[in-house]
Every structure is written in C-alpha cells, then in structure tokens.
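Field guide to reading this record: the first block holds the primary sequence, the second block holds the structure written as discrete tokens, and the final block holds curator observations. Each block starts with its own label. This record concerns adenylate cyclase, catalogued under organism Trypanosoma brucei brucei.

BLOCK 1 — SEQUENCE
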Amino acid sequence: MTSLLSKLSLPLLQLLFLLLSFSTTGRAEDNITINVLSLMYSPDVQEVEVDSLNAGFDASLTARGWKTNSKARVSFIRPPSYDTPVAEFFESVVKESEGKLMIVFGPFGGPSTMWVKGELSKHGAVSFGPLAFSTEVREWDPHLYFISVEPNAELLALFRYAVVFLGLPRVGITYLKGTPSGEALYEFALEISSMMGHELCGAFAAAGGVGADEDALAAEWNQFVETRPQAVLLFAPVRNPATEWFIGRIVKDERTRQMYVLAPSTSQGPLIRTWRDALYASNVSLNDGQLIITGTIPPSNLLTLASVRRFREEMDNHLKSNSEWGGFSKPPHFTINEAISDLMMTGWLTGEILSQALHSTDVLTDRTAFMDSLYRQRRYVVDDLVVGDYGNECGEFASMQGAMCNCNQGGSAVYMKEVVDGFRIEPLQRGFLAWGASQCSSANVKVYAPLYGVFILIADSYITERSARRWYEGASSVPADGSFEDDRLFFHPFRRKLSEVAGDLAQLVDNRIVSAVFGGVTRDALRLPNVTFINPLAASPIVGKFRRNVLLLSPTVRQQLYVIAMHLSNASTGAVSAAIRSKRAEVIGDVLNKSLMTFDVALKSMLLLKESDTLVDHLPSSGDVVAIGLTPPDAHAIAQYLQSRNDRRVYVLFSEVAQLYDEFVEAFNATPAAVVSASRLVFATNLPHWADKNTESDTVAMFHAYNPRESTWTPLRLRGFATARLLRSIVPRMKRISPSLLVDFFYTESNIRVDDMHYGPYSDVECVKGRVTAANRCETNFGAGNISVWSMSRVLDPRVPVLSRGVTPSLEYAVMDGSSLSPSQLAGIIVGSVFFVALAIALCVLLCLFVFNSRDNNRAPREPTDPVTLIFTDIESSTAQWSTHPELMPDAVLAHHTMIRSLIMQYGCYEVKTVGDSFMIACRSASTAVELAGDIQRSFLQHCWGTTVFDDFYRNSEMQKAEDDDHYIPPSARLDPEVYRQLWNGLRVRIGIHTGLCDIRHDEVTKGYDYYGRTPNMAARTESVTNGGQVLLTYAAYMSLSTEERDQLDATSLGPVALRGVPEPIVMYQLNAVPGRAFAGLRLDRDFFFEESEDPTSTSASEHSSTHMELSGSAQTISDALHSLLSTFKAPQRERLLVPYCERWNVSLPRRKGRVWDDAYCEEVIRRIAVKVGHIAEHGARGMSASSGVTTQSGSSLIIISCNPYLSDASPKQCSRVPVSSGREVNNGMTENDAN
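BLOCK 2 — STRUCTURE
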C-alpha cells in the first residue's frame, strides 16, 4: 500500500500543481484592466455629435459586459467635460494607466490627431478610430489605427458620382487655400478629373481665419460662377466663415440655386445645419437630392445589412437601459435624425473592432506586444462588414506575394447618401465605391472615364417603350469583371413622348455627359450633331442614308431584304408580292425591288399602304408576300392568313418580329394549326437562338447564366446583353470616352469580335471624293454578319433547323433594266459609228496583246490568322494629266497597268482590285511586298514613255507651287537635266504598305478575295500621304521584316506621322527605291486618301451609280451616240467592243452577278463611259465658246455634238417599272436617302 501511494504521489502532485496554476491564471486575467481613454471630443463640435460617437462606442462594449473573450475588463474613461483640454486629460489618464494597457478612442479633429501622434509614440499606446479630415495625418504610423477611409477616397467617390451617375460635365470645387491639406485635396481633384477625362470647370478657394473679406469673396465667387458649374465638391471646412458665406451664396444666386453640392462625411452635420439656415434666410425650399454626402461606414438606415440591424438593436437596448444618455430621444430616434445615428454607428463599429482586437490573452499586459498584434495581417469581420487588412513593415518580396505592408487604414468602401424632404438622410443605391482589402487605401485606385449611355423610352409608343425596356434589362444583366475600375458602362433612362425626343435629347446633350444613345429614336433625333447612336430602335423600319454617328449592330433593313431575296431565289415557286406600310414606303420598296432583281426574283406587285391602312386586308390571294410595317394586331392576322392558305409564305423583318415577340409567339402557339403554319413565316437574323438550352453559343450560354428565368429569354434581351458585352470589351481599351472617340474606335478597329459575335467591317471611307476604297463597301456604319434565314417554327422550338445558313450579304446589286432607244439615240448613229468602230478595233488589237492575269485566287492570302501585307498605289495628279493630255493618258495608263500586273505575277502576289488607275495588292510576306513596291518604282523609271510631257507637267507644277509658296522647295524641277533623267521618268506613282490581320472574304459575285478591316484602312491612309514616286511603310510593315531583311533594306525613318482617323501617330519608313530622290513633305493636309473631288479618272459616285445621276450635255451626246451604234449588236458583241474602250479610257466596270452581259449591264457601262469622257471633254473645253454647236478638243479624235432639241425628248430614266396596286409606280433607282 505504501509503495502504491509512493508510485501515485508524483503524478497526483503534478496534476494538483497544474490545476492551481490554471486557477491562478484565471483570477489574474479577471484582474486585468484595460484603460480606454476617450479623446473623441472637440470644443469646435456640437455636444450632441460628441455624445453620439461616445454613446455608440459605449453601446458596443456594454453589449459584451465590458469584457473581452479573455475575461479582461475594459475601463472606459471619458473627460469630465468636453471643454477639458485634450493634452491635460491625456496626461492625467497616462498617469493612472502606468503598468496597464492603455488605448485611445479618437481623437476628433486634425489638430488633436496631429498632437496626439507624438504622445502615443512616447507612451507606446495606440489610437483606435481617429476622426481627422486631413491628408497630413494619413501617413503610415502604427500608433494611429484608422477604421474609415481617407479624405482622398471620399473626394474620388464624389467626383465619380457627379460624372458617372449625375452625368455632369461641369463640376467645380471649393477648398481651403493656403493649408497643406486643402492644397493637397485640390491637387488630387485635378488628378482625378484629368484621369476621368472631365476637367474641373472652376474652383472657389476659401481663405482660412475668422474673418472674410466680402469684396474678395465676391470676386472669387463671380469668377467661379462664370464657369457655369453644375455641381461643386465642398471640401473646405463648413465652419469656416468663407465656406459659410459660399453656401449662402449658392442659395441666393439664381445661377447656382439648382447646383448639386457634394460633401464628405465629416461635413454632414454642419452642412445640413448651414444649408437649412441659408434656405430659411432666402425663403427657398429644399430640393431633394441636391445635397450628396459620403459615408465612410454604412448609413445607419441601410437595413439590408446585418451589421446595421444589429447596431440598431444594441443601440436601442443601450439607450433604453442607460440613463447617462438621456439626452437622446428614445426609439424611434433613428428615423428622426439620421446624422446623429450615423455618428452612433461610427462609434459602435469602432467598439466592435476593439473588442475583436482584445481577444488575444498574451498581449493584454504589454503595450508593444498589443500594438504588434494589431498589424499581423489583421482583418476584422463584423457581420457583413470587412475592415482591414492591417499590416506592419515588410519587404517588397512579401508584398509581391500578397502581404499588406505599412497599412494602418482599414476602410475600403465609400457609401453615398442624399438629403431629402425634412432634411432626412437616405442611402443611395448607386455610387457605392469599394476597392477591397487587397489595397490599403485608394491611392492606387484608377477611375477612368465612363461610357454614359442614355436609353430612350418612347412614352406614347407602347411597343417601342417595351422593346427598349427589354433591351435595357438584357444590357444591365451583364456584370462587370468584379473590379469597379473597369465598371465603366452605365445606362440611364430618358423617357419622353415621341414629339419631344429630338428637342429634349438635344437639351440633354448640352447639359449632361452623353457618350452614346440607345433605345427608341426618331428621324429628327438621328439628325442631331455630336450624338452617337448605337443600334437604335425605330418605331417603324428605316432605310436612311449613311450617318457616321449611327453605329448599327443588328441587320439593317437593307441586309435583311437582301438575304431574304437570296433565299427566295432558291425557295420561291414564282413571283412574289409586297405590302409595305410606312411613311417611307417608296424608299423601302426601292430597296426590296433592287434586292429581288439582283437574284432574278420577279416582283409581281407592290402595295404601298398608309400607316392607317390594315395590312392583312391587302395581302394577296396567291403567291408569297413580303410584309413590312407591322403592328401588334398583324401578328394574329398573319397567323390566320397562313392557316387559311397552306401554300403561302409570308416574309417579314426580324427587327419587327423582335419588337412584337409576345404577339407573334402567342399567335403561333394558339392552336395546333397555328404551330404548323409557323413554318411559313420567314425572316432573317444574325442572333443565335436566345432560348436554346443546348446552345453552342458562348453569348447565349452567358445570357442564360445571368438571366436564369426562362421567361426572360427573348431576342431583344439577348440583343441588349450582346451589346453590353461588346461595349464592356471596348471600354477598357479607351482611357477617355466621348461620342466622337467612341465612333472613331469602331471605324478604326473596323472589325470587332466578342465571344461568338462579330461586328464589322465599319468604314468611313468617303467614296464620293475618290478612287480606291479601303474595303469593298465604303461608308459602312452597319456591322451585322452571318445572317441566316429562320422560320417562326424555329422561334418556337430551337431544335428546328435554319432555312438558310448564315451569310454576310455583299449588298452588291445588279444593274436595272434599261428602256428602249430614244429618237435622239437613233439620230446619233451616223455621227458616232465611224469613229467608234475604228477606235474599238484598235483597242481590241491592243487588248489581245495584254494577256496578263494577276487575279489568280491561288496566290491570294486566305488564312485569317496570318498577317497580310497590303499595297495601295495611285498615279499622282491623274486628274490634271487626263484633262491636259487625254490623247496620251490611255496608252500611259495601259502601260502602267501592264507593268504593275507583270510584277504582281512575278512576285506571286494577288491583285485584289483595280479601280481607275489605282491598285490594291495583297502579299503573303512583307519582304515580297517591299521588293514589289521597289521594282514598281524602278520599272517606271526605266520605261520608255515615248514623250516628256508627263515630266514637264510635274516640273511645271512644282515651279508653280514654288512661286506661290516661298517656303516650298521643288524636289525635282530645278535638277540638272542629266541628273533628273537618272531619278525621274514618266508617270509618278504613290505607294503605301501596311501589314496586319484582315477579315478575308470570298466574293460570290467577282469570285475573288477581298480584305476588310483596319489593315486595308491603314494601308490606304498610308498611301494617301505619300508623294509621287515615293514608297512608305508603316511601322508594322517594317517590323514584319526579319532583322536581316531590315539591315539590308535601304529605308529612312520619318518618325511618327499623324493620319486622319487614327488616334495615335504611326511611325513611318520611306523605302529608298530610287536612291537620290527627294520628296516634298508628306501630304498631311489632304482629305483622307482621295484625289480631288472633280477627278474624272476616279471611281466616284458618278461611276458607281451612274444610273442615279443626270448626264451632262457632252456625256448625254456620247451616250446617245454609243447607244445608236451598238443597238444593232447583240450583247456578247457589245461586250467585246466596250471592254477595250473601258480599258483605254480608264473606266471601271460595275459589279455583275453573271458571266454574260445583259442589256442592263451594257447600259450601265455606256453611261460610265459617257460620264468619264464627257467630263474630260468639258474640262478641256473650259474657256472656249459655250455657244458653239460643235466643239473639237485639240489633239484628240473625239468629236462632241450638241444634243438636237428637235430630235430628243427628256433624258430617259434608266430604271424598270413595277405595277403598283395603288396606281403609283416605284422607281428601281436608289434614292439619295438610300446610301447604306
């Protein structure tokens, strides 16, 4: 027994000792007292505000029984009076706290905070939640533990709110001048405004001190008001006399009475009191929302937050049970004075942070250890609020891995509030700014210009307003990428009646930032200058002229009708009819008629209806019909029509189906017969199916993810979603945003791809001024492609296949049929036959000698992922050369074409197109393109032109310019003749080269390849600035050469060159193809890359659309003569006669859809010849007598005979006519409003 006890005695003694030690430790912790000294007061602040802060802090710790989790007790020491000097009170508590952990709550105000910094460091203490609106105290100091954000963050949030959410272009600021904090805030405001692309409009610099010079203030005020500020950032202390005077003047002055006032959180109480007094003094009522105030903590009435709800509960309990705070009204005091309750919550949140900081047992008796614990990458979570991270000093490598270094600021969010009726404060849902815990402060936050989008709601058009709302619902469902810095796309509603849209929108643009306009529009609105419209919704179909500022993403009316006509050519069993209800029915009818004729689809009849007519009553009894101009009742009417006629199909515009989506779905889902008939309602669209659950479209998959309710899966919502996705991909690439910059982006990029949606090419090439366009279509503001044909059955069931696969319509139209010969044409047979036959035979002989074919598709670059090098060429001063030497230019241009085509074949490149005297050439490699360009210049130098007139012309032009401009130095006119012959000879050609990716397409009409996008645009712009005989390479083309190739290349850098339509200057290199040549300065003053508008050798509007313009007298005579001569020949014979004549006189052939020339095509070619030759003849005849009946141009075999008025009627219009049910006739020629 004794041995057993002896064996157990040692373990028992150890256990007893351990229990005694635990008991001692627990009692020791119970005896630990932590002194919390409240310096949260100031004699300059109202007592109720100080009480609110301290009461909130008190409430938080009271809810925990003034104990920490380690059972240590907290002693809250408050000053005996708020008049007690901070230094005196601090020193007294320091003495009482010797040997204890001492923490400071506060202080309040910049001066107190600046003073206490040194004292805290001396005593090893830390201050929790100091409130100081001063940038000076916000530097790294471990003794100051800030809970809220810094003043700069509030300034950033307020300026962003004014620009992004209020859309105000003119924002000013008032600040306290002559103080470090005030000047620092002003400089930061300038930095923000510059970063967002909206400079401050003005500043009111308030002077410090107790007095204010009235005259100086008035002068400062007048200077400020002259800038017409719409809002002011109030960052001067409200208690400052100059600031109070400023606030009073805002209310008194009618020019500023409606101005927004945006102020930081520390100004909340004083601002409301001062504003109330100013309104009372001027007998003016409060404007709701005019005062905008930030919050560094959540507003105390933001009940959606769990932290706010718990605060209110604990605060209520504390005030009910604690008589010390009897000065506060009992609940519901939160609904009486939100400013006071916000201060309470500030104190309460500080108490919550302190309670969590005191959890660690081992640091409660050592001030240094406690302060170190606060910066151990510390983060606090209070219900749904996050404060921190706090971090101590650490190295750069730790920072790179995510450590927070030198951070004593825990706030990372700014809340927005507004003052409303009764001077109550309401939280604002928009404007909240947060940058997360990964950044210590807002110092590195970048906020760039927003895209401020206005979407128009037509109040008196139910369908248009519903469509715009659905579009907006889809657009607003696109989330940002999680970073507010890139969250720069904002939509704002603008609801007006139809008649008010244009006028009110113009006024809005003058007073608000409007980056782009979406939603419903009117024709008058589209004419507004300096406004960018993106894919607007029209109440009725619009076929309008090209407007650079209207960017279309959906298929246009023209595109839809073109694709429908293409489908009809394969599916139709006969002629189709048309019923069009619109104010612009004739214009739409022209487009439809032209589209159908292009694909040999007969148009049996066209009915043009008034807007008041009932569409279904006028649908034909037989055959397919194209119906345009639908209203809600038409959906059910068309469904009934198709059910009653099983062999009929109705073709409609998808843009109308999308707007009447509910009506069409309901009509064709009504009965089984209606569902069956849905297969015969046909339209064209480029959208993927919005309701396909098994979609392969990335866009639709994301659309479903962010819009999970199937009832929201509609085409307009998907269109809005896709538009927002497009804009969100564009905005990060633009630091500054304006209507013009946004438009420039589209035309510069040309082709834009987002997810699986493609937009473009967009082109602003001005065809009416020039020759070679940068892409096949010029002035193109629509970008929809891959347009497929659907039936309504596919709308109801995504599993139903499309009727025709997606295509991108070329919009190349066949030439209209011509009318019969007129008497004037017959009268010209004798006059023109002898001359023309002789000339035609000579040209045919020359054409037979020209056997080169450089348009071999096997040589065309076809891989879209491989860069293409494009060459653009053009003869310098061809206009003047043609008018001066018309007898020599045909042969010279023929030699020009022969040499270039020979070299294209030699180097294995591809002739994309030849228009007039200009070439567009595509090469697979940059080195090949450079060698080809150099050889072109050397070939022209070595060619025997057989005359010196071209050289004489260029030298005389240079000398004339030298006489007119003293600063101009002729590059070649003054050279020694022998030197000149070594450097110059014959025609001079400009050459521009650029390398990049292209949108490569195969043209079904020409059977060749064409190149779209930014690369051809840049190549054309490069050629436009060169001089004759010069070769320019862009930086991209130059760098596409290998290092060895660049070393061997004789090229000179010209430095950055500003090109029209290109945001940034482009570095250019000059290829020294002929060493020794000197050139004048680049042609930067020229409009884009075109020759003069009167250039008869260019591919002008008259050439591309000769059927749509009246012929001049000379041109008409030539046309009459050619018609008379060729009327006895069949079409193939006419082709053989006309082709060499076009080559001889440099006339470009129109596009055609077949291999055989028909009568209409011959008609168009004759008109083009007449336009060009007539222009040249008139140019040469200037200065001669206009009264002569017969004019002979010297040196030419061309004879011009005036039209005989006794033998000729008015010029016949070159268009066919279609029977119209209403008795009117529709002209197949396109109108001036039909330029798209």
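BLOCK 3 — OBSERVATIONS
The longest helix spans residues 2-30.
The first strand starts at residue 33 and ends at 38.
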